[in-house]
Amino acid sequence: MKICRFNDNRLGLAEGTSVRDVTAALDVIPPARYPFPTHDALIAHLDEVTARAKELARSAPVLALDAVRLLTPVANPGKIVAAPVNYEKHLAEVKSDDALHQNTTGHTLTIHKAGMFLKATSSMVGAGDGVALRVPDRRTDHEVELAFVIGRTASRVSRADALHYVAGYTIGLDISIRGTEDRSFRKSADTYSVLGPWLVTADEIPDPGNLDLEIRVNGERRQQSNTRHMTLGVAELIEMASAFYTLHPGDVVFTGTPEGVSPIEPGDEIVATVEGIGSMSVRVRGG
Fold first, then answer.
1. Could you tell me the pTM of the whole model?
2. CATH T-level assignment (fold) for domain 2-71
3. pLDDT tens digits for 224-250?
4. Which CATH code of 3.10.25.10, 3.90.850.10, 2.40.110.10, 3.60.15.10 fits the domain covering 80-286?
5. What is the CB-side half-sphere exposure of residue 251 using CA atoms within 13 A?
6. Contact, 247 vs 239, CB < 8 A?
């Protein structure tokens, strides 16, 4: 099932070139009062929401997909966790390009030594929101990634059990300002974590470790690889992250980018594609 959020926080089921409006399925989510939960309520109740959405789909209004504005499929992630240099060829290009590593040792470590890092949740947007370049006089690059969403509370999870904690998969764009500052600072600007175009439930992607992915900018292919080339796969990343902090429903994990990262400029159109999920088109504008 492909679950999307669109327009004014509507809930939809994406099917080909259309979307069925099943917003009424959100009524099964229990109401909450202050202090509000630190997880995403839709993801925490995903089974109930999707069951109700299936019932509603038969008579739901059908809209053209290209006529709606796609929002991030997760409205309230508690954390955005990201994996640095998780493709060997990307690590090699970082080491060989001063513009990427800025003579900062931490940027050329393997993921085993560098660990993972956090991005601000305020940086997350959907495909329809686009990317607004925050610091236009600094080099800013695209990074296409497989992203996944945690479906239930996970702490000290073993890799053998890890995939059972995944709610679904989506496409992530980790937009990065180059410089000497810490990764979390340079990658947390508004609109610099693009997620979409929808969430594909985990049952539809039994093997996240063998998915083609690519990115095109203005029609030119810039990145192309397969998730089998990740140093740490989805299960290993969950094991690593959950060893340090508890993951909650709705937390988003970016799995790292392959080689081929390059600058983007206002006016560019980015099309990111991951096998089994689809493609999302993202516009770049000035900040």
1. 0.95
2. SH3 type barrels. (2.30.30)
3. 999 999 999 999 999 999 999 999 999
4. 3.90.850.10
5. 24
6. no
